[in-house]
Amino acid sequence: MVAFARRFDPQWYHVDPGRAAASEYGGLIASGFFTVSLFMRAYVDHVLSRAAAAASPGLEELRWTAPVYARDRLAVVLDVLDRRPSTARPGLGTVTLQGTMTRVGDGSDVLSTRFRGWFQLR
Q1: What is each CA distance from 32 to 65, 89, 117, 118, in whole angstroms?
Q2: CB count, 10 Å around CB of 32?
Q3: Ramachandran area for residue 118 (φ above 0: left; ψ -120 to 50: alpha; else beta)
Q4: Which listed residue, of 10, 34, 46, 94, carries a Cα 20 to 30 Å from 69's Cα?
Q5: Do 12 and 20 contact (CB within 8 A), yes or no?
Q6: Nearest alpha-carbon partner for 98 in 69, 63, 68, 67
Q7: What is the pLDDT of residue 32?
C-alpha cells in the first residue's frame, strides 16, 4: 500500500506515518487508486477470468466513500444493472455493472463504481 503510494500517489496521508497518525485519519490510508486496483484484481479473478470478456468501453462513476487502512479486510459485491447487444461492437454485449467494496467487520462501504464491460454474445 505504501510502496504504491510512494510511486504513484505520494500525498502525506499515504506516505508519512507520523503526520497521518496525528491527523483525523489516525494512521496511513490507502491511495484511492490502490483501492481501485484491489477492486480490479477481484473483478479479474472472479469475473473476467471466467468469462468471454473483451475490453471495457468505460467507467461511468468512481467514488471513494471511506478511507482504507493497511489491516482492513475488504469484500466486493458486483451487481448487473443492464445488459444489451453492443451498438459499437457487433457480436458483443454491453453489460453495465455496479461494484461496491465494503470493509469486512463494520460493513462500511469504501468504494463504489459503475462501469460497462463488453462480453461475447452467446
Answers
A1: 10, 31, 21, 25
A2: 17
A3: beta
A4: 46
A5: yes
A6: 63
A7: 98
| Reported pTM | 0.91
CA distance 96 to 94: 7
Residue 76 cell numbers, joined: 466486493
39-70 in b/e form (b: 16+ CB < 10 A) is beebbeeebeeeeebbeeeeeeeeebebbbbe
DSSP state of 88: S
Beta strands in the chain (DSSP E): 58-64, 74-85, 92-103, 109-120
pLDDT in tens, 3-23: 999 999 999 999 999 999 999
